Amino acid sequence: MHYMHGMKKLFLLLSLLVATPAFAADEDHAVAIKQVENYLSSLTTIVADFNQVSPNGEVATGKFYLKRPGKMRWQYNPPTPILLVSNGKTVTYFDAELDQVNYVPLDDTLAGFLTKEHIQMNSKATKLVSFTRKDGVSRVTIAQRAKPDEGKLTLEMSEKPLQLRQMKIVDAGGGETSIQLQNAQYGMPLKDDLFVFIDPRGVTPRKRR
After folding, report:
1. Segments of the chain scoring below 50 in pLDDT
2. Residue-level pLDDT at 172
3. Is position 106 within any domain?
4. Which residues is 153 bridged to in the sheet?
5. What domain range is 104 assigned to?
6. Alpha carbon distances (Å) from 192 to 71, 88, 103, 163
7. CATH number, position 91
8. What does the pLDDT read at residue 17?
9. C-alpha gyration radius of the chain
10. Would 203 be classed as within a structural domain?
11. List of residues 6+ apart from 176 with CB closer than 8 A
């Protein structure tokens, strides 16, 4: 059951969603940050295998799908019984082993950062914590502006050309979950049905008023 604890912890981190020292906001950094924002905003779809390492060292694999704006899907391979889906408004977390479903508004999560139509590191919802460029890799760390101490998300991108390779999620206690994207394909057509959660329990969620 250790991996179940890790999966639930990841979901909570994503719902809140390695900090480095504060960046110097010089002109070169400002230009580089804008390039990263433009690159992320230009992404239409991503399909990639992922390899996840939790703070306790447990490893999980699966398939990641992104369709901007608003939609994403984290589909874990067995034996991890987890599915996480965003339909553009709600993030749904399904635990097949526990037979449980949780729903969180997408706008309340750092998980939804990549799904924004126009990505800005500094916005009403998020703030830029750090930005570094070293050895051909750009790293940008953001936090929720309203809850900066409750979790941080780091995106790692290779340069020339810019390409998203890895994500790191750090919780308030310093625990780090690393997610590496592999065999990524960009710009592929993806059907919207992929981002609709069909509850296998046959339960229809009540609509919010």
Report:
1. 12-25, 208-209
2. 77
3. yes
4. 142, 169
5. 2-187
6. 8, 10, 19, 24
7. 2.50.20.10
8. 40
9. 17
10. no
11. 18, 55, 168, 169, 170
